[in-house]
Q: What sequence folds into this?
């Protein structure tokens, strides 16, 4: 347990920061679930819209420091890869 006033304050600040970061990460997870659902439908336009929202959310979360920028970049790249594969799939089967 913290004894000094400054250490107690840091504990309070860390609790608040952790809550903020967890909330931001939850928003990202929800957005990624929406993206996955859009890709599962096979609708490229819907998936592209979900990609746009997801990449925006990831960039904002990385900017705040709740997630490392390289992690966010890696996730954005993988999402884009899935959308590109979805776009090519109808052309390959036709």
A:
């Amino acid at each position: 347990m913290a004894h000094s006033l400054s250490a107690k304050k840091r504990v309070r600040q860390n609790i608040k920061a952790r809550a903020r970061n967890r909330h931001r990460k939850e928003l990202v997870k929800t957005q990624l679930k929406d993206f996955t659902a859009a890709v599962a439908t096979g609708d490229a336009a819907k998936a592209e819209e979900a990609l746009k929202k997801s990449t925006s959310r990831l960039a904002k979360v990385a900017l705040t420091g709740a997630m490392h920028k390289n992690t966010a970049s890696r996730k954005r790249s993988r999402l884009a890869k899935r959308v590109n594969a979805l776009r090519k799939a109808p052309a390959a089967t036709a």
In short: The two ends are 66 Å apart (CA to CA). The mean pLDDT is 94. Residues 17 and 31 are 21 Å apart (CA to CA).
